[in-house]
Design brief:
heterodimer; A: about 250 residues; mainly alpha; 11 helices; B: about 300 residues; alpha/beta; Rossmann fold; Alpha-Beta Plaits; 2 domains; 4-stranded antiparallel beta sheet; elongated
């Protein structure tokens, strides 16, 4: 096994211990449950509105951010808290490699969980109304896009402080759902909106609620991907700088 | 040409006027020394700056002033030195969810190069074969120490740095680890073992570097350190109802450095505590005074080292 693969596998295992996996996996089912409860006895068009306003909004506004913030904060935060950071940094491996691997591990771990939510939510609508498979793929793409953005922000934050999850929730509630809602020019800095925009493009579905949420992000999915990849590059640079410059425990 | 015992021949690690401060607190102050093949004990009381020095050597901490080089490279800038250097930190830097075997295997996987030693051999070196497949979470402190040593050894490093590696080990484990460190030193590896216990360092190594308050206190063989300690004047508090009279007699006898008169006692500075212990009861009896106590004040390692720093 190569050093990078070893670090990747160990990091994913560290991010997804059994109890956390079960808890976050259960959380992934919430949007599908909300959708199924709210859409019973509805027509296909009405159910699509419930799917977007209830299921998709719960998924992108609540489930994806919470899971992504928790996992991102842990990526380097757990190593720092458990004092194992010295174990990985005192290896013949560039700190950039460590930063990239931790980011990839976070995205892989989160995507594994988001696959449950995407299949459950997308599948619930797809099988009832014979919708396109792109619904599930769009949800998954949107989840990955949002996760990369959250990871880019909260891996460095988790490295710096034990309160990264609290800061993340404040970011979600105050910045994303407060400030950005008022100032649409800042929408590119809102991870869940980037994800939702990618979903809307790939799945080819939208309604007033979704369009209102991602007003200036009516882009194609490719542009959302480019934005989050740029965020990832900046994040890796910042994390590498901190790993190189700061005194490490 | 004089030989400074703080410096090793053919050093692998060189510390040149290194200082480290955290805000207003100076952890290491203008420290110069070097380390070469064999085992060197890094001795000093808790808080002396041992861990900070080791963290600067490994590159975990930056150097505020001065230089630290390992195999000719700056450990903060050249990650390739970690092919040749391993650290066993004082803290429990282990993955508790892994088994001992997984932890050591992880160390080999991260090392990038083929290991000279198998995981089983590393486990054998620290006598941990029986517990190898148990989760580290269930290990005792001594077992965690040993599995950390095994994880450091498995990559066969040229330089092995161990921060208080004997903490939490029982006498049998301690003897085993000491024998292991000595064997590695005999193989020509640079082994640094830090401890705050002189007797522990004495058992591990013949060469000692002692630091206190972040400064070099003494360096050389354990015998030389002990000799330096023998020359230190010790402070003793003597309880008596006639401190002034007893003080005058002690000064007249000439075997004390100084006398400080207190209300019901004397604070004496002397080179020979045991002689003073013999003289004082006789003197108080001659004076017809009461002798109520004899209490050495500063026989701790810290105070001894502090004196050595001040006298350098």
């Amino acid at each position: 096994m190569t050093p990078v693969l070893a670090l990747l596998v160990a990091s994913i295992r560290q991010l997804l211990p059994l109890k956390r996996s079960l808890a976050l996996g259960a959380l992934q089912l919430v949007p599908a449950i909300v959708y199924l409860l709210a859409s019973s006895n509805r027509t296909a068009d009405a159910a699509l509105d419930v799917f977007l306003d209830g299921g998709v909004s719960t998924y992108f506004l609540l489930v994806i951010p919470i899971i992504s913030i928790v996992l991102s904060s842990s990526a380097l935060g757990v190593e720092r808290r458990d004092q194992t950071l010295s174990f990985i940094v005192l290896r013949p491996m560039r700190r950039t490699t460590i930063a990239i691997t931790k980011l990839v591990a976070t995205v892989v771990a989160a995507t594994a969980l988001h696959a449950i939510g995407s299949v459950a939510l997308g599948g619930a609508h797809m099988f009832r109304f014979d919708a396109d498979l792109d619904l599930i793929l769009g949800l998954l793409l949107g989840a990955v896009v949002a996760t990369i953005a959250y990871a880019s922000i909260f891996i460095p934050v988790g490295f710096l402080t034990d309160r990264a999850v609290i800061i993340g929730l404040a970011f979600l509630l105050i910045f994303e759902n407060g400030v950005v809602s008022a100032l649409s020019a800042l929408e590119t800095l809102s991870p869940w909106r980037l994800g939702a925009a990618a979903f809307a493009d790939m799945a080819g579905v939208s309604n007033d609620g979704l369009r209102e949420a991602v007003r200036s992000l009516a882009w194609d999915a490719g542009r959302s991907v480019v934005v989050v990849l740029a965020m990832a590059v900046v994040s890796v640079a910042i994390t590498t700088l901190m790993l190189n410059r700061r005194d490490l425990a | 040409m004089t030989f400074d015992p703080a410096f090793a021949e053919n050093p692998t690690i060189e510390v040149a006027g290194a200082s480290k401060w955290f805000g207003q607190k100076v952890a290491v102050s203008n420290l110069s020394c070097s380390f070469g093949a064999g085992v060197t004990g890094l001795l000093g009381p808790n808080g002396a700056g041992k861990t900070t020095l080791l963290r600067m050597i490994t590159g975990l901490a930056s150097v505020s002033d001065g230089d630290v080089s390992v195999l000719g490279s700056n450990p903060r800038k050249d990650h390739r030195i970690y092919h040749h250097l391993s650290l066993v930190p004082d803290e429990d830097s282990v993955y508790k969810e892994m088994t001992g075997r997984q932890f050591i295997a992880y160390a080999t996987q991260l090392a990038a190069a083929p290991s000279a030693m198998s995981v089983d051999e590393a486990l054998e070196q620290v006598a941990m074969q029986d517990a190898a497949d148990r989760d580290i979470a269930g290990y005792s402190k001594g077992m965690r120490q040993r599995v950390k040593v095994a994880a450091a050894l498995v990559t066969d490093p040229q330089i092995l740095i161990l921060d208080e590696p004997l903490n939490g080990t029982d006498p049998l484990q301690r003897a085993h680890l000491i024998e292991l460190f000595q064997r590695l030193g005999d193989q020509g590896k640079t082994v640094i073992v830090s401890s705050h216990v002189l007797e522990e360092v004495e058992r591990v190594s013949s060469r000692v570097i002692a630091i206190v308050d972040g400064r070099l206190a003494a360096a050389g063989t354990v015998d030389a350190i002990r000799a330096a300690m023998r020359d230190i004047p010790f402070s003793v508090r003597i309880g008596t109802d006639s401190p002034r009279e007893l003080g005058a007699v002690l000064i007249a006898a000439g075997n004390v450095h100084s006398v400080e008169i207190e209300e019901k006692s004397l604070l004496i500075l002397t080179d020979d505590v045991s002689q003073l212990g013999r003289d004082v009861p006789r003197m108080t009896a001659t004076l017809g005074a009461r002798f109520t106590g004899f209490q050495p004040q500063d026989d701790s390692l810290e105070s001894v080292f502090r004196y050595l720093v001040e006298s350098r």
